[in-house]
Amino acid sequence: MLFAALLLSSASLGPVDDAATPLLWSKAQEDGSGEAGPQGTDDTQSAAKAGRAAFEAALDWLSSEQERQPDGSLPTNGAKEEAPLAVTALTTLAWMAGGSTPERGPHGVQLGLAIDYLLARVDLDPKSPTLGYISDGRDQLSRMHGHGFATLALAEAYAMSPRSPRGRRIERALRVAIDRIEASQGTEGGWYYGSERSLQHEGSVTITLVQALRAARNSGLKVNPEVIARAIEYVRRSQREDGAFRYAIGHKQTSVALTAAAISTLNATGIYSGEEILRGYDSVQRELSARETASLSLRIPPFPTYERLYLAQAYWQHSDRAVFERWFATERDHLITTQEAAGAWTDSRFGSTYATATNAIVLALPESLLPIFQR
Predict the structure, then answer these.
(1) Which of 91, 96, 97 is nearest to 75 (CA)?
(2) pLDDT single digits (tens) 135-182
(3) Which CATH number belongs to the domain containing residue 10 in this structure?
(4) Do the beta carbons of residue 284 and residue 256 sit within 8 Å?
C-alpha cells in the first residue's frame, strides 16, 4: 500500500526515446520566465542568465576534466577522500540535467563515456556473492553509497534510450544492481556501506539507494514493495521528537543535511506530506534561523556541498513553492559568486569534481529534466 504512492506519483515516468528528450536548457530559464523565481523583473532575468552561465561553465569544466582519464571516469581533483565512482555518477547526472543524452547534446559524447565506465564496473558474474554490485577498486570510500549514485545515474540514462544497444546493456546492469540493493538492506530497514546485508545502517547511504530504486521504478523496472515499506519505517524511526532526523536509528547525531536527506528519502517513496514531513521542515528552518545569529565559524556546515544538494531537493518538493524560490535565489547567488573562473567549485574533503557536479545538479533542479527530480 505504501509502495502505491511510488507507483502512482506524478514523477513516475516510463521509458522515452532519445528524440523525445530535451537536449538544451530551456529558454524559460534563460529569460527569467521559468519557475525558479518571480517573473518579469530585470533582476530575475539577470540572475537566471547568470545562473545558466554558471551551470554551463560547470558542465564544460567537467567535460575538460574527463579528458584526463582514459576510462571515462572523472578525476576527484584534490580530494582528501577519493570516491571516483560516486563522483563520476554525479557528473553523469549533471550532464543529463543539462539536457544531454548519450552521444547527443553538448556533452553527449562525454556522457556516453561516463555511462560506459559505470557499466564496466557492474559485477555481472552469476556466481559472485556480490552480483550486481557497482564498484571501482580505487574507490574504497563510497561503496554502497557510490553504488546508489551509479544505479540512479544508469536508471536516468536508461529512461532516455531503452531500446538502443547501450540501453539494453543498462537494463541488464540495472536488474542486478536493483537486486543487490534489495539483498543488502539491513535488518532495521536501512543500508550501510557494505554490499551485503548488515546489522549496521545509516541514513546517507539509505537515501541514495531509495532514490536509485525510485528511478529504476520510474524507468519501468520491478522493485520489491516490501523493501520500500521497510525503508520508510526505518526513516520514520530515525526522527527525533523535535522533528530532526538522526544519522541512524539510536544515534545521537543529527543535522540540517541529515534531516533534508531524510525528507528527500520519504519523497522518493511518494510521501510528500504528513506529520513527519512538516516536523522535518520545521526542524530545518529552526536550525537555519539559528545559524543567522551564530558566530561565523558555526554558520558553515561541516558538509556544505552535501547539505546544499539535499536542501535543494527537500525544498523543491515543499508544498509552498515560494519556500524553494527564496532559498534558491540566495543559494544561486552564492554559487555564482564562489565559482572559479574555470567553472569549478571546491570542496576541501571530497574534491572539486564532486563539488562542481553536485552544485550543477542544484542549479539545474528548477528545469526538471531528470524524472527523479521532478515535482
Answers:
(1) 91
(2) 999 998 999 999 999 999 999 999 998 999 999 999 999 999 999 999
(3) 1.50.10.20
(4) yes
- The set of cell numbers assigned to 142 is 563510497
DSSP state at residue 312? H
The cell 531524510 sits on which residue? 262
For residue 364, the one-letter residue type is A
State what percent of residues in the chain have pLDDT above 90: 81
The distance of Cα 64 from the centroid of its chain, to the nearest Å, equals 22
Range of the domain at 155: 2-373
Please state, in angstroms and rounded to a whole number, the distance separating the CA atoms of residues 43 and 92: 31
Maximum distance among all alpha carbons in the chain?
Answer: 61
Write the pLDDT tens digit of every residue in 246-269. Answer: 999 999 999 999 999 999 999 999
Q: How many domains does the chain have?
A: 1
Return the closest-CA partner of residue 149 out of 197, 205, 188.
205
371 close to 215: Cβ distance less than 8 angstroms: yes
Question: Residue 369: is it exposed, middle or buried by C-beta count within 10 angstroms (0-12/13-18/19+)?
Answer: buried
Angstrom distance (rounded) from CA 144 to CA 330: 33
- The residue type found at 122 is V
- Please give the Cα distance from 126 to 176 (Å, whole number): 10
End-to-end CA distance of the chain: 21
CA distance linking residue 114 with residue 71, whole number of Å: 8
Query: How does pLDDT run across 355-364, given as a tens digit for each residue?
Result: 999 999 999 9
* CB 228, CB 213: distance < 8 Å: yes
Strand partners, 191: 202
Task: Give the C-alpha separation, 218 to 180, whole Å.
Answer: 18
